[in-house]
Amino acid sequence: MTNIPIDAIADIRSPEKPEDWRRFFGFSTDHKVIGIQYIVTSFLFFLIGGVLAMVIRGELITPESDLVDRTVYNSMFTMHGTIMLFLWTFPVLLGLSNYLVPLMIGARDMAFPRLNAVAFWMVPVFGIILMASFFVPGGSSQSGWWAYPPASLQNPTGNIVNGQFLWLLAVAISGVASIMGAINFVTTIFRMRTTGMTWFKMPVFVWAVLAAQIIQLFGLPALTAGAVMLLSDLTFGTSFFDPAKGGDPVLFQHFFWFYSHPAVYVIILPVFGIFSEIFPVYARKPLFGYKFVAVSSLIITGLSATVWVHHMFASGTPDWMRMFFMATSMLISVPTGIKVFAWVATIWGGKIKLNTPMLFGLGALVMFVFAGITGIMLAAVPVDIHVNNTYFVVGHFHYVIYGATVLGIYAALYHWFPKMTGRMYSEGLGKLHFILTFIGTNACFFPMHPLGLQGMPRRVASYDPEFAFWNVIASLGGFLLGISTLPFILNMVGSWVQGEKAPKNPWRAIGLEWLVSSPPSHENFEELPIVIAEPYGYGKDAPLVSNPDKLEIAHATN
Amino acid sequence: MQPTNTSIDSANPILEVAHEATHHDHQDNRMFGFVVFLLSESVIFLSFFAGYIVYKTTSLNWLPEGVTGLEVREPLISTIILVSSSFTIYVAEKFLHQKQLWGFRAFWLLTIAMGSYFLYGQAVEWSGLDFGFSDGVFGGSFYLLTGFHGLHVLTGVLLQSIMLVRSFFPNNYAKGEFGVESTSLFWHFVDVIWIALFMLIYVWQ
Questions:
Q1: B176 — contact with chain A (CB < 8 Å)?
Q2: Predicted ipTM of the assembly
Q3: I want to staple A392 with a disulfide (CB 3.0 to 4.6 A). Which of A35, A245, A387, B176 is the partner?
Q4: pTM score of the predicted model
Q5: Is residue B103 a part of any domain in this protein?
Q6: Does residue B124 belong to any structural domain of this protein?
Q7: What number of other Cβ atoms are within 10 A of residue A15's Cβ?
Q8: Which residues of B touch A555 (CB under 8 A)?
Q9: Mutate which of B38, B49, B137 to disrupt the A interface (most A C-beta within 10 Å)?
Q10: How far is residue A446's CA from residue A450's CA, in Å, rounded to a whole number?
Q11: Which tens digit of pLDDT belongs to each residue from A80-104?
Q12: Chain A partners of B60 at a C-beta cutoff of 8 Å?
């Protein structure tokens, strides 16, 4: 803690001198450092989760179970899902939010910088706990990422410290860290906005982060409650979810999905925010229907608490519940549709610049629309009963999580890369990365839809040879996705080391973060900006702040 | 809390004004964040309550064999004492606002004593019960709910003890009373949860 004032003083006295790179490996309380720590850490776990996915696709390229043992296969899909959600999509989006929210609302840092750092450092801690579960007797959890009892209550080795125990421990720590983060974001957005930054002058990304973090606050505690009860069933012999002892396994499903369906919105809402930031910049037009896009995020937050039973249409759910949750689930498509309409209207007739972030943004939007259509199909009870637990579901949510979310994250990483590192990325490598990713995503995940409609169940290591054709294509697509990360890594590392120096605002974008140097100074703003205009004023030629020349000391001394 | 700001302020007078502004907001931010935390925490209890209601209304064998129900008299006394302690902690806070430290300490200590009595009563009750944590969903949910709440009471008592000790440091509360205010709010929260819990477990048998 004591090094912070020294850093700050050094930074103020010589604003030209770059900060020490070692701060990225320590307990920094700078939201920008923490943001990058989140992004880099989670990307490493993304690669690990990707390797597990390669194993799954390698197993499924032939109908027989021949690559790995069936129990290992169970471990692979369980840990793939867990890692990708809790150690990649959540933390990487927290990283982007951490980096961008204080800058976008004109604050020097988050409301609670130390809490922020503690919350980040819990990510590697529970990441290591989860990885350690591979090495305990009996191996890691094999009950899928949703850990349904009674499968998750089986403990064949009889050890207290088993794979499922460590899984629950990791998820619990992740939950605590996420709650800490959510408290920090909500407080920051409510109370740290600069002068003139009224609610309807906030960038949509900030609205989206607020909406997402509110979901964490009301959803995660429910999952925690379920996890505590599952843990005590597993460890202390209680019978909450054990049907053999009078427990109710479906109750766990309620607890689980009450959080874990809204969790999808925790993931996708910031991606909606990214779309809303990127499309106006590269179409050179104001965001269409800004207020509707902003408020629709909060409507999604509200509705997200009323849809979870659509995951349980086949769990002995009464008919009235099926009807109710079918209707609410379909209702979500209204605020989502408003957003899609607004993005299309923003792009329509714009001066479109197809650079890497825009390509990723458009690709992600197209795949999100596709995922939305299959989502509506799945919300309908008759369709859901037919394809429940088949590859159709897997295909649907991979279009959401990979097609829309991962591509959206890539778009954001390219778009803000110059701001974060002060360097430009390589456009050629970026476009190569986009082409490989776009083809790979569709090749890997589209075949899952026909497979599911034909009845191929998910989570199986072997299958009927009639499904072989689409599985081979999906596997080849999966391997292509693995390859597609190589140009990305090369681009990010190479450009950070020796890329062309980035100016303040390489994209001529409008936003507070683009008014300060790349990367911003430790304190972000020397004098806090005074906001006088709505965001996205493209083509309007109106200044965003009344004091643009006073935001940085470098200007005052020049 | 403020080493960062102080050292920057002393290094650069230009920043002083701006940092002064954030310094004043800081206290309010913490209270805002704490309220957000309590709202979130309440959902854990709501989830447990929901689970309890589901079990109570759907279980085929609700009470374990040989168990007829829960004794209400002693828990009711504990309840009255715990709820009353919400008033004593309020009086203690009033005294602190008026800078009357001894009045604050007296009522604060009374609150600690009442909270401790509640914990003692719970320990006595638990040791006299003839069912355990693993005796069906009734045993499980009884100990889970009362135990999780008891953990909160214990946390409250520990926080109160820290605040009591801190009141003996000179000028500790000169710059605001976030610790006392948040502890008090937490205590009210724990009380309200207990009332709901008492209704669910003891009244609705």
A1: no
A2: 0.90
A3: A387
A4: 0.92
A5: yes
A6: yes
A7: 18
A8: none
A9: B137
A10: 8
A11: 999 999 999 999 999 999 999 999 9
A12: 246
